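User: My collaborator sent over this chain with a note saying "see what the structure looks like." That's all I know about it. Can you take a look?
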Amino acid sequence: MDTASVFRVRGLRKVYRMGEVEVHALRGVDLDLYGGELVVVLGPSGSGKSTLLNILGGLDTASDGEVRYRDLDLTHADEATLTDYRRRHVGFVFQFYNLIPSLTARENVAAVTEISDSPMAPERALALVQLQERMDHFPAQLSGGEQQRVAIARAIAKNPAVLLCDEPTGALDSTTGIVVLQTLERANRELGTTTVLITHNAAIAAMADRVLHIADGRVGEVQHNERRRPASELSW
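Assistant: Without extra context I'll predict from the sequence alone. Here is the result:
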């Protein structure tokens, strides 16, 4: 793990206004994320973890506070800067796969690499997620776990410095979920990508370098794992 800070977050607040009602999604979050680490953000539904991930990924902006990615100030960045940031530096994996049904696995990955600065070949990305034998299959011909692995291949094919994962096993059974977590673990280890995985499933925490517990929009306890447990040893 690199000791250099990739993200520096101070006093982060996010308020959503719904008519006359204010919803405080984040209430003064401070944290640092480092190069090459795998971090699990653990919290219940409505705790603010997805909002935090979206702000780190440049999909949303803070109401107050400071968010920096290396030397880039995300807090005051305009939409063009955020778009460039997402394209160059961030890979996203969501709960639902968002694959294009009319494209094969290889073509779904290639759709991203064509707009990236220094992408890896789609074939290599799919090999990293162990789908080299399924490259020319369409999403409807793949299982849910295989579709999620295509989505991971699509994310890592950009060669991103940061991989942000929003409940990547939420739509999967436990056996398939373990395979997906092994895929993320391998990408983190082999590519050195800073990986942030948000979940409400406490069993996943054991595979992380650090676990950030979030509740009511605040990051509380930070758990350091002296030894990451392999995803293959997890059960829930």
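A starting point for your reply to your collaborator: The chain has one domain: 5-233.
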